[in-house]
Amino acid sequence: MPFLNTIPPRALDRTTAPPVSPRERWLVLAALTLASMAAIVVSARHHAWLFYGDAEAHLHIARRIFDSHRPGLSQLGSVWLPLPHLLLAPFAAITPWWRSGFAAVLPSALCYLAAALGLYRLARIWIHPLPALFALAFFALNPNLLYLQTTAMTEPLFLAELVWSVLLLVRWHSSLDDPPAACLRIGALHLWPLTLTLIAAAWTRYDGWILGFGIWLWMALALHRRRALFQRRFILASFALLAAPLLWMLYNAIYFGDGLDFMRGPYSAAAIEARTSHGMVPPHPGWHNPWISALFFWHASTGDAFARSFVGWLLLLLSLFGLFVVLRMVRRARNTPRRAALAATLLLWFPLPFYAYSVAWGSVPIFLPDWWPHSFYNTRYGMEMLPAFAFTLGVAADWLLARLAEARPSSHPSAQLRAVAPQTGTLVAAMACLFLANTGQMIAQHPLVYVEATRNFAARGAYTQTLAAALARLHALDPDALTLVETSDFPSIIPLAGLTYRQTLNESDYLYFRAALAAPASHVAIILAFDGDAVADAVRAHPQDLRLLARFAAPGQPDSALYVSTLSPLAHAVLSTAPR
After folding, report:
1. Residue 49 near residue 101 (C-beta atoms within 8 A)
2. Where would a tag sit more exposed on the chain, N or C end, judged by fewer CB atoms within 10 A?
3. 272/154 Cα distance (integer angstroms)
4. Residue 267: pLDDT over 70
5. How many Å apart are CA 522 and CA 546, to the nearest integer?
6. Which range in 227-236, 369-378, 400-409 is most confidently predicted, on average pLDDT?
7. Cα–Cα distance between 50 and 102 in angstroms, integer?
């Protein structure tokens, strides 16, 4: 584009930006900590830690690693990748924290801090402190991210891994500016941290598999150009990176009998889509259409990051302008490691093509209230574009400040500084107002991800609490009673009832669960069955010695029924009041 030819030479020139000082890092960390704590307090006041059903499920998986009849790695399940649950497990071991949802707050908040600090350090490689602070503020004050970092959702963790992967890749590429003998040695200092970060991403979300391959290919091409592709360190790192998805497939094969159970098993995204679409073709607007899928993801991304107002549109245009600035500078820095290092920041935009494909063919639809079918589903996926928007906004701010510094040439530097200073102050104040207005308007308009969470909770919250209260009353009569129940769809019933998973027989203890389904009355005292689940089928097939206590129903939720075994010691205490 012609106007990009006006980019001044000092824009994105690292030599003109001072390095990050320890004092600067501590001030940034202190500000981020205050923002995180404020969001935690607000979320606690609204009891919002467990609004998302997926947040409940993540804590459920983390808890059952040790709170089950067959504790161990098999409790990680076959679909969701293991790292988030392994990180949550020590906190979920504290029973009050698990029941309240606070178990997720500390690890998620630490991931938020890591992601924000990583983004700031990435921006400071290329731009000056003030525009880097703008990029940080846009990222760290995003209301959707501030909410997610109080929950067990995986977005804060993956954003930290995405940002640090790009940051370490940029540093690795920058080391290739050194003499040949030194560059490989210095690059090795970043190689293993980068490899470990990519392994962590590959064990967090399936997006990480594509991110890891893309970064590995990027590095392989850079080394090939220097005839250093077969150096021992890189080969070892390549095998370590390849092992991450292979180990997950091996785990699926050992525990679930199919190395691809996460793709085609009964709890996979494809199976869930088949069950919930009820045979509709297409099941969602982006089905087998990458262009529509990209449009839905882009709309979700901009809705997650920008206010639906003139301020939001202006910031979006500034972010896109910053992207063009980066592209222009990449073109200018021809055939140098600096060019590859700057181009590596474009990997922050990889979620856009990834989700265009995933929504179209990966059974992960996105629904938005503005477009058919006018509902909320997976709007949080758009959060993965937040680092890209924030970084390029910082670049755009740096470009504007650099242009302003060159706008009034003068023979004397002090005279030029006096002429430009008022304009610089005005621009800085205007940018700060834009960022604060964007955050304030997003809060006033209700953040998209938070609204989806509240809708999610409203659909099942009261129903879950009613069922939990019924279970709690029964267990108060006999604390040793076992309950047969499937916990995947309503995992919060057990903690809300004041129980642990060892007081249940559920689908995660497969062998015990299958035995109980064959003869419910002789294995457990209490049965909670939901229409269409395996427990309801078992009750219909083996109704002997079972007495119905109550039925429950809620709009949009499967009906449920509570039974007691007449063979259990609990029976005589409740049968006198049970419906006949």
Report:
1. yes
2. C
3. 19
4. yes
5. 10
6. 369-378
7. 9
pLDDT of 64 over the 70 cut: yes
Instruction: Give the pLDDT score at 188.
Output: 65
State both tokens at 515.
């035995």
Q: Cα separations (Å) of 163 from 70, 119, 195, 211, 224? A: 37, 6, 14, 11, 25
Single pTM value for the model: 0.92
pLDDT of 144-199, one tens digit each?
Answer: 999 999 999 999 999 999 999 999 999 888 777 655 554 555 456 789 999 999 99
**Sheet of strand 526-530: strand arrangement:** 504-505, 483-484, 526-530, 560-565, 546-552
Which phi and psi angles does 491 have, rounded to 5°? Answer: -65, -20
- Rounded distance between C-alpha atoms, residue 448 and residue 431, angstroms: 24
User: If you ran DSSP here, which 8-state letter would residue 424 be given?
Assistant: H
Let me know: does 58 contact 157? Beta carbons within 8 Å: no
Answer for the pair 284, 372: CB distance below 8 angstroms, yes or no.
no
> How many other C-beta atoms are found inside a 10 Å radius of the C-beta of residue 311?
20
Measured CA to CA, the distance from residue 73 to residue 95 in angstroms comes to: 20
| Beta carbons within 10 angstroms of residue 580's beta carbon | 5
> How would you classify the pairing of strands 504-505 and 483-484?
parallel
Tokens of 70: 């067959």
- The distance between the two most distant Cα atoms of the chain, rounded to a whole number of Å, is 99
Decide the pairing of beta strands 560-565 and 546-552: antiparallel
| Matching residue, tokens 């650099």 | 402
**Long-range contacts of range 533-541, CB-CB < 8 Å, 24 or more positions apart?**
533/486, 533/489, 533/558, 534/486, 534/507, 535/484, 535/485, 535/486, 536/561, 538/484, 539/563
User: Residue 380 in contact with residue 449, Cβ under 8 Å?
Assistant: yes
Amino acid at 157: L
On whether the CB atoms of residues 174 and 338 are closer than 8 A, the answer is yes
Residue 392 tokens read as 């390029």
**pLDDT of amino acid 21:** 79
Q: How would residue 8 be classed by pLDDT, with cut points 50, 70 and 90?
A: very low
Q: What is the pLDDT of residues 519-574, one digit of tens each?
A: 999 999 999 999 989 999 999 999 999 999 999 999 989 999 999 999 998 887 77
Residue type at 288 in one-letter notation: H
Q: Name every residue whose Cβ is closer than 8 Å to that of residue 403 and which is 6 or more positions away in sequence.
A: 6, 8, 11
Residues 6+ apart with CB under 8 A from 48: 147, 150, 151, 450, 453, 454, 457
What pLDDT was estimated at residue 227?
Answer: 79
Q: What is the mean pLDDT of the chain?
A: 88
> Does residue 378 register a pLDDT over 90?
yes
